[in-house]
Design a protein that fits this description.
CATH superfamily of the largest domain: FAD/NAD(P)-binding domain
Number of helices: 12
Strand order of the largest sheet: 10-11-12-13-9-14
Radius of gyration: 22 Å
Largest sheet: 6 strands, antiparallel
CATH architecture of the largest domain: 3-Layer(bba) Sandwich
Helix content: 25-40%
Structural class: alpha/beta
Number of strands: 16
Order of helices and strands: EHEEHHEEHEEHEEEEHHEEHEEHEHHH
Amino acid sequence: MQTKRVTVIGGGLAGSEAAWRLAEGGVEVELIEMKPARRSPAHVLDGLAELVCSNSLRSDNPHNAVGLLHEELRRLGSVVLAAADATRVPAGDALAVDRERFSALVTARLEAHPRIRLRREEATRLPDPPDLALVATGPLTGDALAAEIAALAGGRLHFYDAIAPIVAGDSIDRTIAYARSRYGKGSGEDYLNLPLDEAQYRAFVAALLAGGKVTPHAFEEARYFEGCLPIEVMAERGPDVLAYGPMKPVGLEDPRTGRRPFAVVQLRREDVAGTAWNLVGFQTRLTWPEQRRIFRAYLPGLANAEFVRLGQIHRNTFLEAPRVLAPDLSARARPHLFFAGQITGVEGYVESAACGHLAARAILDRLAGRDFSPPAAATAMGALHGHLTGAAHPPGYDYQPTNVVFALFPELLGRHRGKVARKEAHVARARKEIEPWLTPSP
């Protein structure tokens, strides 16, 4: 190897996963994390791998694309998936965690690794060659570093994202809320549901539309990820959009009446004890006073809600990866720099960790003097790599952040009748084709 030292900037999910994979591959890693010296408005913990928007890593069912990604990362020795499994809280077939215990466990494992040195300071400039560096500063990259990355990318770097509120469990009216997972998945106690009749739903939507919102600065353009739209933006698209989206009541019949409400607000537990609950899909740019007023007044069961955390809007930085990055996730303009995580245009906790793993494997290949060998396109890891390189998209595609979905996978051969059969075929093919990539080349 030409060197055995790599700098990783950013201790989020991608940076933590990459640092672990590099260290396990025999590389001395200097991991730079700005907290607690400086933190973004969305961060509250001092630890690494902080989960900001939600405590859920989404479906753990391998017949869902993200569940298959979970499986592949576990088989690859992911530190993020190991920590998630160790700090899991009930959430049906979703992999949800106690976010404080999760962050603490990832932090402890990386701090204890003999080849990882953690530096608690803000990186304000990109490292110079020849030493290799991985930038995994995520959607909340500091202004100084973001300016350097923008210059490297030669274009715009950001849109906006929003996070959902959390309420205290003992402030929820349990005479109104009922416990039920959609279609009875899980233990039945993983979610609480607030039922709304049609009149209540219409009143809530009207209040949402009229409520005061956080306004971006005049020089900023709000560009939202379609999979994480603020609820008021969804409501602006039509009066019934929320009822068919995050407030969809299908599979959530009230066991006390046997009937399906017109709409439902789902609350997902934040910890095993159920002391805090996340309003599922309720990411918002309402001002904090308006959140308190509207949610208490118009959502049944939350009249006396105590908010552990209120929703907020924040900048989300990402590169046009197919144009700016080479297939090994290094910058075309500055090949000693690699990028990983949400800054590359992947969306989601698990996708960010997977991207960190991909970049780390690419760096190990570079250090060994060989070309990067990506995972097969038919695997979840390979499909994500196909998104980053553009190979999974048609010509002229407008590059946007995305979660891993089966639409990114190569077309299946043969006939497969029905959605279930197609998913089973995707999974069977992926499990076979990930095998050669499980053991890194020496």
